[in-house]
UniProtKB/TrEMBL annotation:
<feature type="active site" description="Proton donor; for beta-elimination activity">
    <location>
        <position position="58"/>
    </location>
</feature>
<dbReference type="InterPro" id="IPR000214">
    <property type="entry name" value="Znf_DNA_glyclase/AP_lyase"/>
</dbReference>
<keyword id="KW-0479">Metal-binding</keyword>
<feature type="active site" description="Proton donor">
    <location>
        <position position="3"/>
    </location>
</feature>
<keyword id="KW-0378">Hydrolase</keyword>
<keyword id="KW-0326">Glycosidase</keyword>
<keyword id="KW-0456">Lyase</keyword>
<dbReference type="Pfam" id="PF01149">
    <property type="entry name" value="Fapy_DNA_glyco"/>
</dbReference>
<dbReference type="InterPro" id="IPR010979">
    <property type="entry name" value="Ribosomal_uS13-like_H2TH"/>
</dbReference>
<dbReference type="InterPro" id="IPR020629">
    <property type="entry name" value="FPG_Glyclase"/>
</dbReference>
<feature type="binding site">
    <location>
        <position position="112"/>
    </location>
    <ligand>
        <name>DNA</name>
    </ligand>
</feature>
<keyword id="KW-0863">Zinc-finger</keyword>
<dbReference type="InterPro" id="IPR015886">
    <property type="entry name" value="H2TH_FPG"/>
</dbReference>
<comment type="similarity">
    <text>Belongs to the FPG family.</text>
</comment>
<keyword id="KW-0238">DNA-binding</keyword>
<feature type="domain" description="Formamidopyrimidine-DNA glycosylase catalytic">
    <location>
        <begin position="2"/>
        <end position="115"/>
    </location>
</feature>
<dbReference type="InterPro" id="IPR010663">
    <property type="entry name" value="Znf_FPG/IleRS"/>
</dbReference>
Amino acid sequence: MPELPEVETVRRGLKQLIIGKKIVGVDTDWEKIMNGGLDLFRAQLIGHSFTSIDRRGKYLLLRLDGDLTIVSHLRMEGKYALMTDKNEPKQRFQHVWFTFSDGSQLRYYDSRKFGRMTIVPTGQEYAEINGLAKMGPEPVASDFKVPDFKARLMRHKKAVKTVLLDQNVVAGIGNIYADETLWMSKIHPEQAANTLSDAQIQVLHDNIIKELATAIKFKGTTVHSFVDANGASGGFQNKLEVYGKKGEPCPRCGTAIEKIKVNGRGTHFCPHCQVRTDI
DNA sequence: CTTGCGACCTGTTGGC
DNA sequence: TGCCAACAGGTCGCAA
């Protein structure tokens, strides 16, 4: 489900709900979600309390006392919610639950069971989690620099959209924001990455920073099922320009938005505004 | 090193 | 109305 703005929205909401809560039990009905298995999770976590939550790209880093971190990736459908009463019946798609000393319970839901959690010593995330080891810069001006972005793009002759989805190039972009930022930048999603002009790279870079920041402000995008830790939908779906708009007029020029496949992912673009400059 | 594609899962949706 | 193939905010492993 979630791209960076949605994960950040989850982080902000969840933080308010679980900081200070002490784990007294861990359970699951789909052990694969927990790397290392249930017994390891119980042995490591019981007796420890949540102290804060950080985020890197689309990963949540749930911090506990004792220098423990649960690295959690929601993949397509993962969600968290706090149940005030642990005795509330197990819900549809509920696969992992952490019971707290005050009788409340943090529940993890995942209809497709793609999400994963891993316990690491705090500070060892980068050493132990493959996806974090080589992750690109956060899409903010202080981290994400045009020269590095250009160097990355020039290494690839595949479609620029596919490169944007590579978390090692820049962190946090997924299918929605790739389509949106390419539309904003008037770049065709299938243009070979290594053929972008300096001007195109600069515009794309700036739009990525702008778009993700705005999406966070609106608490993320709900297209299918995204909800934050309080069960609320996002607000940015009302701001989308091309994603999910096949056949509708381009907001800039009125041409019908087209939907194609790029490396297996549904891709929306305006055939008039977004013209390939590499063929 | 880069690239494309199947696998991982299950629920929902669009088209006939 | 009903069925079923296609599709879904993601990543990883593997072969070429």
